[in-house]
Amino acid sequence: MSEPSARLTRAQQRRRSEDRILAAARRIFAELGYDRTTIRAVASAAGVDAGLVMHYFGSKDLLFARASEAPADELPGGTSDEVAEALLTSLGRRLTEEPTASLAVLRSMLTNADAADRYRAAGEPQLKHLTEAIPTPDADLRASLLSAIVHGVLAERYLLRLTNLADASPEQIVDLLRPCFQSLATPPPTAE
Amino acid sequence: MSEPSARLTRAQQRRRSEDRILAAARRIFAELGYDRTTIRAVASAAGVDAGLVMHYFGSKDLLFARASEAPADELPGGTSDEVAEALLTSLGRRLTEEPTASLAVLRSMLTNADAADRYRAAGEPQLKHLTEAIPTPDADLRASLLSAIVHGVLAERYLLRLTNLADASPEQIVDLLRPCFQSLATPPPTAE
DNA sequence: ACCCTCGGTCAACGGCCGTAGAATGAACCG
DNA sequence: CGGTTCATTCTACGGCCGTTGACCGAGGGT
């Protein structure tokens, strides 16, 4: 009996507004970073008043926290080769479907302590995972280098939009990086 | 008759103040990035008034431009192997002596268009150089990946200070990255 | 029909920032 | 010594921002 178009219950209204605010926040945080993003701009992009954003999310920090929530990729365990391939697959996916929420963190991490913490927290389990799979004493450094490479590529492709990286196909990037990842994940087979 | 300690000519005074302002600006821009750095903070760290900074440098943008001037590394030409090794050497040097001026750019490039342009401009000749030395059709992409790796490592070591990367010795990092760089700089010897 | 609830707006405050311009006093030059 | 230059400081303006609290009006339960 309810009209299919207009009428919304209060809960629906609220949810719709919150979703629109979060979507706008993710987009703008990812585009401008934490500092240059203003609550007023987010509100305006979401079609609401700035006061409403405060009302629902409490503060700019909390809004950023909510907007940058992103499920971390689960890397399956296994040999170092398998983990390297899994990391490549994860990178390939992130090169295919632009991960706006994690881009917000990536964009802001160099100038905002909260975002930096969030970045560390998101990367830590993956780092631990990688470290455990790499059978060398310097496993932790190797894992960190792998992480640095992944994020360096993502940053230059999506944030800096360096044309070479932005135009390349995910497969091409992944294929070029494969030997790179393998050399870091596995001890050199040359000496034995 | 001039005291060895105190008396300074006007030109000396000016030069001393400009140098102190530039040094403070480099440090703070590198630490906080463009946006969070205030002229007042730079002036205070340099022991002068904010008006003086404006008087000498004209604007915050111009101050940033002056503070982030850094001579680019010249990469010698040669085979792809040699260029890869030269890039590694350059990275090793930047891991040994912290390059404050380029850290200011690195810190700010994700949130400031000027810094992003400066970053592109600084990297472009090196990229061209790398591209010319790599004998594959996808040389430009390979060069960009190499650049992304270098800057990813620098950012995580100096800006994010991820402990694994911050504690490692430059030699260790360079050695681990060598096969990585070689695999990107040279076509795979497997297929032939 | 009543009234409480609550989504939403509006106007304002206090703070920090980049920047401009007047004022001061010492260094320089004749 | 007198006047000019110039390094330096002080004060203030206008703007943007995060945040607040009063206010409005339409649900929605009873």
UniProtKB/TrEMBL annotation, chains A, B:
Keyword terms, alphabetized: DNA-binding
Domain HTH tetR-type, first and last residues per copy: 15-75
UniProt keyword annotation of Ion transport present: no
Annotated coiled-coil segments of the chain: none
Pfam family, one: TetR_C_16
Organism, scientific name: Amycolatopsis ultiminotia
DNA-binding residues: 38-57
Keyword check for Ribosomal protein: no
Protein name per Swiss-Prot or TrEMBL: TetR/AcrR family transcriptional regulator
